[in-house]
Design brief:
The chain is mainly α. It contains eleven helices and no strands. It starts with a helix and ends with a helix.
Length: about 240
């Protein structure tokens, strides 16, 4: 995964582009979008060694050591325990980016529902960034300006990204050659199911109905792309 894939998963879960980029801007400020990031100055272990020790069970103090960890720099003991429990329940590394993204969504929906609902309807990038900072991340210093700058950069980059019509045709051909499971079976060549996730996230942003954001090219996705092209692209 990477920032584009995290963005597409946040969009697919229901966030607006502004909400998703507000979350990503905060993640950038917290961890530089590194899922194995163990808070600098809080542990003598490297990020890789810390992650490996937690995964292998040789380090038993992950929950209570107050070391910020992961994309969101989870620090408080109850949140770190919930993160560890979730990783163990699905058998994934504590440092897995996709697992942490899904946990973030799960945590927002269960423990920060007013914020989650706001991120799913807002078009106000600044306020969304500030609310994620003060309500979800709660850092010692509310450096909202820096987080907003990251969010703006990410919004400019991600909210306008979509494959070309030629790339879509190539994806469809590859789908015919390779069964497309967006989780475990990426397409051959330079285009992957994650590219389709990003395309579908963009179409959803503009209100085109094609069904689920699932990384698969179907007739509804193709129809939505044609409608998008007719509405927004000069010929």
């Amino acid at each position: 995964m990477g920032k584009k894939e995290i963005y597409s998963r946040l969009i697919g879960a229901g966030m607006t582009p502004q909400g998703a980029c507000a979350m990503l801007g905060n993640m950038q400020a917290e961890s530089a979008l590194r899922a194995t990031n163990a808070q600098d100055g809080m542990t003598s272990m490297s990020d890789a060694a810390y992650t490996k020790a937690v995964d292998h069970g040789t380090y038993q103090n992950f929950v209570n050591d107050a070391v910020g960890y992961g994309l969101c720099q989870w620090t408080f003991h109850t949140r770190k325990k919930a993160l560890l429990d979730y990783a163990e329940s699905i058998g994934w590394s504590i440092g897995d980016e996709q697992m942490q993204t899904e946990f973030c969504i799960k945590e927002l929906k269960s423990d920060y529902l007013p914020l989650w609902n706001y991120l799913c309807k807002t078009d106000d990038l600044y306020t969304a960034t500030a609310r994620v900072c003060t309500e979800y991340e709660r850092p010692a210093v509310n450096n909202i300006a820096a987080r907003y700058s990251f969010a703006q950069q990410l919004f400019a980059e991600l909210s306008t990204t979509a494959p070309t019509a030629e790339e879509l045709d190539e994806i469809e051909e590859l789908n015919k050659e390779t069964p497309a499971n967006p989780e475990t079976n990426p397409l051959k060549g330079k285009l992957t199911n994650e590219t389709v996730y990003i395309l579908q996230a963009l179409l959803k942003t503009y209100g085109y109905d094609f069904g689920a954001v699932d990384g698969l090219i179907g007739d509804k996705t193709k129809a939505a792309l044609k409608a998008f092209t007719a509405d927004f692209c000069e010929v």
